[in-house]
Amino acid sequence: MVEDGCSPVTVEDSPCALRFDVSAADGNSRVLFVERGEEQGRWVLVVD
User: Fold this and answer.
1) Rounded to two decimals, what is the model's pTM?
2) DSSP labels for 1-48?
């Protein structure tokens, strides 16, 4: 486990909290995009 509490990306479940300062950004949604080799993951995150 690395200093920020998140382990490297693996195929096994591993809880992790990612925090980004978006206070200066407009809108209520963000997109999280992860690439690992040829694989890609994309999540649309919406704030209520």
Assistant:
1) 0.49
2) --TTS-PPP-SS----------TT--SSEEEEEEEETTEEEEEEEE--
Task: State how many domains the chain has.
Answer: 1
The candidate with the shortest Cα–Cα distance to 31, out of 48, 46, 15, 16, is: 46
pLDDT band at 3 (very low <50, low <70, confident <90, very high): low
pLDDT tens digit string along 9-18?
777 877 777 7
What value, to the nearest 5°, has the Cα angle with vertex 34 and ends 37 and 26? 155
CB of 7 closer than 8 Å to CB of 14 = yes
Contact between 19 and 32 (Cβ < 8 Å): no
